[in-house]
Write a structure and sequence with these properties.
Ubiquitin-like (UB roll), alpha/beta, Rossmann fold, disordered C terminus, three-stranded mixed beta sheet, nine-stranded mixed beta sheet, 19% strand
């Protein structure tokens, strides 16, 4: 039969053990237990950064490119020669790679010569698509007289497509050096051919090209007068003198040109002035109209009054 110590006895024993302190080592005859091993994460292997790999690839590509350039310049290292400009060597490499300019398509032109467009491209300075400066070529093409707008499209690997929109001739300007065509803005387009002689209005005088659009805009309200017009002459770059069929001359004022045309085309008791057999109609004065029947008398009064 066992004996269980009472509660006061157990307390005295625990107090004695606490006062005696921890034991300095294991009991004799027993081996100290090894501390338990705690499983940890597997060792981490750091990968080489992607930036480093990209740097290595860039170095390798540069070395390979240099080797290709050396092979082209020295014919595989067999010969040595004076080095040409870098741009020409780039064109050679681009041509070997299939990017040399071999075809040019030109559309939309009728009055602009092909040679003028090809000269504006300056292909001698860039023989491949890699070095072709499309923006600079476009500016040169749009400076050509007949060209209003142009577009340049690169078609890889070896083609360029050019589309032109040309200006429309508006009038024939008679100058001392010969007749030239102008557009609506007064820009000179080129020499006038015989085909334009009867199809376009004729103007003359200094400053006529820039002032023609305003005159013909006023004449749009009077198609009969516009159809009878043979020539419009700009006088001192201030006013117009119109020459109609059968030789009638009409002096318009420097100001209020539209109002003067209303007076000219107004119905009268003897008929409109343009329907009469007159040599001169002078509308420069606002309060009166001067007319001449005799051509000789008209010539003597032809000196302009301002």
């Amino acid at each position: 039969m066992g004996f269980a110590p009472c509660a006061p006895c157990r307390g005295m024993r625990l107090l004695a053990l606490s006062l005696s302190g921890p034991r300095s080592g294991p009991r004799r005859g027993r081996r100290a237990a090894d501390p338990p091993r705690v499983p940890g994460p597997a060792p981490f292997k750091r990968r080489a950064p992607a930036r480093g790999r990209a740097r290595h690839l860039a170095v390798f590509a540069a070395i390979l490119t240099g080797a290709c350039i050396f092979a082209v310049v020295t014919e595989g290292g067999r010969t040595t020669r004076s080095v040409r400009p870098l741009g020409e060597q780039i064109d050679d490499i681009a041509t070997i790679a299939g990017f040399g300019l071999r075809q040019i398509n030109l559309t939309g032109h009728r009055m602009t010569p092909d040679t003028a467009v090809f000269d504006a491209l300056e292909l001698s300075a860039a023989a491949s698509l890699l070095r072709f400066d499309g923006a600079a070529a476009l500016r040169r093409i749009e400076r050509l007289p007949w060209v209003e707008t142009a577009t340049i499209e690169r078609i890889f690997p070896d083609e360029i497509s050019i589309t032109l929109t040309e200006r429309k001739p508006y009038a024939v300007w008679r100058k001392p050096g010969g007749d030239v065509l102008i557009d609506e803005e007064g820009r000179e387009l080129g020499p006038a051919a015989r085909a334009h002689a009867g199809a376009l209005p004729v103007i003359a005088g200094d400053g006529a090209a820039l002032a023609a659009h305003a005159l013909f805009r006023n004449l749009e309200s009077y198609p009969e007068l516009r159809n009878r017009l043979v020539e419009a002459e700009r006088v001192a770059d201030r006013r117009w003198t119109l020459t109609l069929e059968r030789g009638m001359r009409i002096h318009l004022p420097a100001m209020n040109e539209a109002a003067a045309l209303v007076r000219l085309m107004a119905p009268r008791r003897g008929g409109r002035l343009i329907d009469r057999d007159l040599a001169l109609v002078d509308l420069r004065a606002e309060d009166r109209i001067i007319i001449r029947r005799d051509p000789a008398e008209s010539a003597s009064a032809a000196a302009p009054r301002y």
